[in-house]
From TrEMBL:
TPR repeats lie at residues 19-52, 134-167. InterPro entries: TPR-like_helical_dom_sf (IPR011990), TPR_rpt (IPR019734). Residues 1-22 are annotated as: Disordered. The keyword Isomerase does not apply. SMART domains: TPR (SM00028). Keywords: TPR repeat. This is Tetratricopeptide repeat protein.
Length: 194
């Protein structure tokens, strides 16, 4: 008895399905959370094959995720600004400065100046707030220095450097205060016996 092949063989060999490398790249980028780059790849895949459903679905998915990320970023920027204002009004200047600094860093990291149109404030307002805050802290340090509270003056200027690490005026004042503290310590210590 002869074995019967249950599946009849097709007379014509089937053509292998060609993989679209742009589609595969788009899917990989989408998995990695690189939505902007994924959109470019899906668009290229659609250009090569306008009827590609996976490319169309991938493109819509990447666009949706990019829109969601943008909305989340806008909300975070609004929240950082509001936190900065609240801390500032409570005279918690360091916390205000850190909130505004984080807002500026987040905005700059987006590399998209059009995002500012979606904010209820201008980004330069945050810069202005930071400048005012830094001036308050520098002036506070100066007042404390004049009152002889050298260590507290240094703390105020160190807060400036936390917000703006390269602030030359604060660095200079800290140096002067430390020199003065060392001088006062030298004069106030009892002479050593020979």
């Amino acid at each position: 008895m002869q074995a019967v092949d249950p599946a009849p063989k097709s007379a014509e060999p089937s053509e292998p399905v060609k993989a679209n490398p742009r589609l595969e790249a788009g899917e990989q980028l989408l998995k990695q959370g690189k939505h902007k780059e994924a959109i470019v790849e899906f668009e290229a895949a659609l250009k090569a094959d306008p009827s590609s459903q996976p490319a169309a679905l991938g493109l819509r998915s990447a666009q949706k995720k990019m829109k969601e990320e943008r909305e989340k970023t806008v909300q975070n920027l609004i929240q950082f600004n509001e936190n900065g204002l609240q801390f500032y009004n409570r005279e918690e200047y360091l916390r205000a400065g850190l909130a505004w600094k984080e807002a500026l860093e987040l905005f700059r990291s987006q590399n998209d100046p059009t995002m500012e149109r979606e904010l209820p404030f201008r980004i330069d307002e945050i810069t202005t707030h930071l400048d005012q805050l830094i001036r308050i802290l520098v002036d506070k340090g100066i007042l404390l220095y004049r009152q002889g509270e050298l260590q507290n003056a240094v703390y105020a200027w160190q807060d400036v450097l936390i917000v703006e690490p390269e602030h030359a005026e604060a660095k200079d004042y800290i140096h002067k205060a430390r020199v003065k503290m060392e001088t006062l310590e030298t004069f106030s210590s009892p002479p050593s016996s020979p």
